[in-house]
Protein 1
Amino acid sequence: GIGSTQAIRLPIGSSYLLSAEPIYGHKIVIEPSSSFSISEGSPVSASISYEKAFGNIRIESEFPVGEEAKVILKAIDDKDSPEKSWILSANKKFIFWESQNLPVGNYILEYQLPQDYYPLPPSEISIEENSTLTLKPQLLGSRQLQIRTNEDNADFELYSKGESIAKGKGKEFTFSNLFPGEYSLVFHPLINEKKIAKRLCKIHTICK
């Protein structure tokens, strides 16, 4: 049915269950909330009410200082609702952002990332009443660094701003998910090839 009504005639029986179509930004309160029976001469009182409800989202992710990302939120349950968007930036290489209260419902979440990032596909999320949905997207660079050596057992390590970020081994190796910038490549001494190890030193390389 649609709207408010009274005295709906139903056959005597059991396992009746009320349901209702969702309305964007509202929670549904149904009484009785479980299945019920109808007996002759015993009317059943039932109600469906819509109450405004809110939740929010939190985004946490590593992100270089100085870069910006855009987050776009589109309501699925209400196509006429305008999309919401925010610009996020990092504080000390980390994004920790929390939205204001948002109407409960289902949404499509999209990220617009800087040029040198792998794009993230849109995701469907659900915001629930009095709840914070925490998202931890993994933001990866789109650049690669290929290493070729003349030693099958070469052992090396990649540093960025003095911190080790990845290790590699072998005659050919590819470091992936890098961002543009300057890196240090350190070759570690080989057990049986000390002369080779001495000739290979710290190398500064620009990833473009």
Protein 2
Amino acid sequence: ELKITVGSGDEGSAGVRADNGSSVESSGNTFKSNGKSMKGFDIANGSKVSSEGDTFVADGPWSRAFQVSSNSSAVIRSADITANGGKGYLSGKNASGDVIVTVISDAPIGIYSGFSSSFDIADSTVKVKGANARALAVEYNSYGKADNVNINTEGNNAYAATVFSKSSLNISNSTITTNGENAHAITANGASSVDISGSTINTKGAGSY
């Protein structure tokens, strides 16, 4: 069993990165990152990953437990995927030269697929915690498939799934639970589509749907 942890000193780093047409197979391993904009597993630029029984964890603001981007693909089976947010800060100067610090909400993501990429996950659990969290995020001509997946979000304005910019998501035989104010199950826009079958959706919190 392999365990990989990336600490908070490596902002934007990943537990493992598959890049430039790489092919990775993983079974029974743990990938964990802790810090701002961290990724537990990062797949990019035409790479392919096959995962069986792995654990992916990302802790910190804007963290992503599992990311697939730039013409890459991932097949995930029997996984435990967790992303926990934390407060982030942006600083800048106004027109008068005064330094302004803004507190940014957590915004962690469980699985991200973007820029003509795809993921296929089954028999797994995806949990995210924090304001503006997303369990599944599919964007920019990408595709996602989830079968028999337990999806859970906790936090205000959190989504179980977001599908944007000519992307599509298929969810079957799954359970979706959101808990928080304005915490919604699924949203799609920008010529995107979502197909749901045989699944249960529970939304808890004021303004959620």
